[in-house]
């Protein structure tokens, strides 16, 4: 499974690709130079329960750490992950 990030000026996405098949996508809005808002997670039903959403979230968290930006998780999946997994809360906008 490969997770790639794509961005333009106002939007971005982490895309999960498995053997040339899109397994999932987590989208975010860029709300300035120091903040992104994760707004949607979509995982193909074939990949449900295989950690695809978590892998995409971790890729976005890694990018946020590199850029020293914070995340607001409006997406219910991302929001629940921030509540469950303490080691990613360093990038959570409080």
Total number of distinct structural domains? 1
Shape by Cα distribution: globular
Oligomeric grouping of the chains? single chain
CA-CA gap between termini: 31 Å
What class, by secondary structure content? Answer: alpha+beta
- Determine the CATH superfamily: Gcn5-related N-acetyltransferase (GNAT)
Count of separate DSSP helical elements? 2
- Supply the CATH architecture: 3-Layer(aba) Sandwich
- Strand-residue proportion: 35-45%
CATH fold call: Aminopeptidase
Contiguous runs where pLDDT drops below 50 for at least 5 residues:
none
Pfam families: Acetyltransf_CG
Protein name: GNAT family acetyltransferase
Tell me what the structure shows:
This protein has 94 residues and is α+β, with helices and mostly antiparallel strands. It has a single domain (2-87), classed as Aminopeptidase (3-Layer(aba) Sandwich), CATH 3.40.630. It is 27% helix and 39% strand. The chain has two helices and five strands. It has helices at 52-67, 76-84; strands at 2-7, 11-18, 21-30, 35-43, 70-73. The protein has a five-stranded mixed beta sheet. The longest helix has 16 residues, at 52-67. InterPro entries: Acyl_CoA_acyltransferase (IPR016181), Gcn5-rel_NAT (IPR045057), GNAT_dom (IPR000182), GNAT_YJDJ (IPR031165). This is GNAT family acetyltransferase. Pfam families: Acetyltransf_CG. Residues 1-94, 6-93 form the N-acetyltransferase domain.
Element layout with pairings:
Layout: E1 2-7, E2 11-18, E3 21-30, E4 35-43, H1 52-67, E5 70-73, H2 76-84
Organism: Flavobacterium arsenatis
Domain N-acetyltransferase: 1-94, 6-93
Protein name: GNAT family acetyltransferase
